[in-house]
Each structure stands twice: as C-alpha cells, then as structure tokens.
Amino acid sequence: MRHDQQTDLFRDDPARKAKEWRDAAETSLKQFPEDQRRYDYYASNAERWEALTR
C-alpha cells in the first residue's frame, strides 16, 4: 500500500472522524439552513464513521 493511502491509527480514528463530520453537518445547517442536501452529505459521512466505531 502506498504511504499516502495508508490509514493512520491516530489521524484516522473513526470516533474522531465521526465527530468532525457531525460538527461539519451542524455547522452547515447553521450557515446554510435552506441547503438540506449539504447537511445530508455531511451527516451521511458522520454516520458512516460512527458505524465503524461500533
């Protein structure tokens, strides 16, 4: 595997990534309240990372 594709246990922690995506989803909802597609995009990525923590 190439180094730039390799995951890092600390940088790519699923719980941390899930929180970052969840925060981005909430921020996008505040900044763009009419843009549901943008929120859905961030929320779906948060859910994907959250599923990895289970």
Distance between the termini: 26 Å
> What is the percentage of strand-forming residues?
under 5%
Please provide the ordered H/E string of secondary-structure elements: HH
Q: What ranges have pLDDT less than 50 throughout 5 or more consecutive residues?
A: none
Helix share, percent: 55-70%
Rg value: 13 Å
Q: How would you classify the helix and strand content by structural class?
A: mainly alpha
Main sheet overview: none
Total count of strands = 0
Q: Could you say which overall geometry the principal axes of the C-alpha atoms support?
A: elongated
Number of structural units classed as domains:
1
Number of helices: 2
List keywords for this structure.
54 residues; single chain; mainly alpha
Note the topology.
Layout lengths: L13 H18 L4 H17 L2
Helix pairs in contact: 1-2
Characterise the protein shown here.
- With 54 residues, this protein is mainly α.
- It has one domain.
- The protein contains 2 helices and no strands.
- The radius of gyration is 13 Å and the shape is elongated.
- The mean pLDDT is 89.
Brief synopsis:
The protein is an all-alpha fold and 54 residues long.
